Amino acid sequence: QEVRYVFPRKVTVYEYYAISDGRKQVFTDKDALQEYGQQRILAPDKVSYMNLFINGVLQPTSNYIVEEGKIILKTEDIPLYKSPIILQMVKIE
């Protein structure tokens, strides 16, 4: 009889929080809310996957580009004033 052991993988979740000013389509590390401590937008090749939420709605990857330190929205629409921008970055090791 064969016995297999599956060891859990380490998962780390990083988050970036910002608030829309109603004009921007590019958000950087400098736009992060200071109330949540130091936050950075990690390079896509440093994490396993990312999710972007605008006003609580998960955005399709075709709507944005993430670079180290920067989120670029590719849509014509600009997030409404005071809409929360949340980038969830998940790293599986």
Can you describe this structure?
This protein has 93 residues and is an all-beta fold. It has no helices and seven strands. Strands 1-7-3-4 form a four-stranded antiparallel β-sheet, with no helix packed on it. Strands 2-6-5 form a three-stranded antiparallel β-sheet, with no helix packed on it. The two termini are 30 Å apart. The model has no long low-confidence stretch (mean pLDDT 95).
What's this, in brief?
With 93 residues, the protein is mainly beta. The protein has strands spanning 11-19, 26-28, 49-54, 57-58, 64-67, 70-73, 84-92. The model has no long low-confidence stretch (mean pLDDT 95).
List strands and helices in order, with pairings:
Elements: E1 11-19, E2 26-28, E3 49-54, E4 57-58, E5 64-67, E6 70-73, E7 84-92
Antiparallel strand pairs: 1-7, 2-6, 3-4, 3-7, 5-6
